[in-house]
Design brief:
By secondary structure, the chain is of the alpha/beta class. About 50% of the residues lie in helices and about 10% in strands. It contains 17 helices and eleven strands. Helix 1 packs antiparallel against helix 2 and helix 1 packs antiparallel against helix 5. The longest helix has about 35 residues.
Amino acid sequence: MGVMDKAKQAALAAAVNGALGYLEKDPEENLPKLMELVDRLSPDGWYEGQRGAVRSAIQNKDNWYDLILRVYDLDPEVRKVFFRNFIVNASLKGTGIQQEVAQRENCNVPWAVLLDPTSACNLHCTGCWAAEYGNKLNLTLEDMDSIISQGKELGIYMYIYTGGEPLVRKADLIKLCEMHPDCEFLSFTNATLIDEAFCQDLLRVKNFIPAISLEGFEEANDSRRGEGVYDKVTTAMRLLKDHKLPFGISACYTSVNCEDITSEAFFDQLIDLGALFTWFFHYMPVGNDAALSLLPSPEQREMVYHRIRQFRGSKALFTLDFQNDAEYIGGCIAGGREYLHINANGDVDPCVFIHYSNANIHDCTLLEALKSPIFMAYHDNQPFNDNMLRPCPMLENPERLRQLVKETGAKSTDMQSPESADHLCDKCEQYAACWKPTAEKLWSETLEKKAAAASGRK
């Protein structure tokens, strides 16, 4: 997608803003009219696939249409702010500014920034890379305010908290929502600190969405996260649903839980509990103490690949599989291409799972970090593989990460137990080799289907 003309971008943003208010009166009746307006004002190719999916959902009244109507069960004021911040600011206004800066500066400019407010956590989950960071590091409120303010100058209106457990700092996170009401904030969280008072805060600020970590049903979840955590998580989900607040799920699939979290029963339970989205993450063997036994086998990963696509076509739940959906976003999205990660020490990492950097936000601007050697290496080398089922420079292409770190002189940003790139990549070599034949088969099938579909349209 090219840079949208500024006048047309402004016209589209203004029209969508106005139309969203009109949509509130009768979403079922007025949604088709809104899409006609968006189509008329949009340039050729602009989010064409996404717009087509929405039009198809409206016409067929399928599971995606059901999901849209579920959004209209939310608190009306929270929904309005989400539409304004996510659709207008982050996706319309912001994307145009990001593309302009990226072209001018010849570097990546991300759509979202991931921040670790703290390395502290009230849990200690098996195989969690964050546990390696220790529990004494924090970004101050002033640090985070500065990052967000700099980000908005680059067109970034989406901020995502990781950790540690971000809600250890929930007073400051709510304050940032108040300081930046034009941004949308999302937080990965274990949900054990979500209570009535926090729900009232979310209703007041309106621009904060929890993404709750859940590893499956009770046995699978608590075996990794600790006894009783599953009950606390489901209680938090019911509390959010009762308050008509939006939330989603973050699910890490491993060799142990991949059956559970890709089952129809799990999808149905999430919908029943009120979740609107689920982001699936492949287990990453990050950290000196990583549990390699948790890496899925090729057969398990292929099962996940098929099941998520199957339920994407039938369940009213928005899902993303960050390792298997790279075809929709052109490969690796790290290194500032779509996002970057700033840890609680201020180190600016290319990826939340790849902790090597040349820049610290206390010593440079956000734009300078994006032009640092490791980020420019990402910019100059993405995608790391033409097979979109092998997108990562670590997990599926470990030789690429070795090269990037060596050539840029990036250093480990793990303050407690630094891990060399060679040590990390050594752990991925066998996995990458075993996954490659399956990935080649699946990708070949995907290309054949696309070719057949294109031929049918001619």
